[in-house]
Amino acid sequence: MLKEAIATRYxxxxxxxxxxxGLVEADDHGTYVIKFTGAGQGRKTLVAExxxxxxxxxxxxxVPRLVTLDLDPDLGLGEPDQQVKELLRSSGGTNLGMDFLSxxxxxxxxxxxxxxxxxxxxxxxxxxxxNVDRSWRNPNLLRWQGELWLIDHGATMIWHHNWPxxxxxxxxxxxxxxxxxxxxxPDVTRxxxxxxxxxxxxxxxxxxxxxxDVWLADEPGFDTPDELRRAYARPLLARAAVAHERxxxxx
Length: 251
Known about the structure:
The structure is a single chain. The protein is an alpha+beta fold. Helices cover 31% and strands 19% of the residues. The strands form three sheets. A five-stranded mixed beta barrel has the order 1-2-3-5-4. Helix 1 (43-58) packs across helix 6. The chain is globular and about 50 Å long. The mean pLDDT is 94.
């Protein structure tokens, strides 16, 4: 399971994100970007962050460390921004934190270069999890300590917003025509050859085990959190072998 920490101080909102994430300190002396259960799509966004983020990490990508953050809703009583105060008040309990990469720069395709190999790996991964949020308008990539880091995976696996249609949705093509790494001639064939065999039932079981039970409870159509975990794993397992064939718009 993800490491657990307790949020001890709310520092500031990060207004770059549509769901209004914030910056907090925790009892483990860490500084984290917190994403709230009370924001936007709620806990499903956090589940997507965990599944995509932890899968990416196990496939060798650089992803900020994820933790669960226990939030006291009274932490924001002194917050002057009413929107932020209401968000904190509605998000008591288990939220998601990711390491704050101090000094990181947002990725600019005009300022940084990426090899076709690395570009191919990222495009292939985004096709696997159906990431609709890695465009030139919103790269969700950071340059930190000379390396490329992947962030913000809450918009992945959009099929989990409609489980009855999940199988059909997961089989759809992936449109990479606006992908921020398209200009770098991504070698997705090589990426598929290297990465697809790593996406196994065992690996996905390990990844989905990281999701806190509280974010999976009471999902319509599922009796237990573990049943829902398996539902997350199935489309990814099926898609891994053919993800490179589903990519459109980069040639």
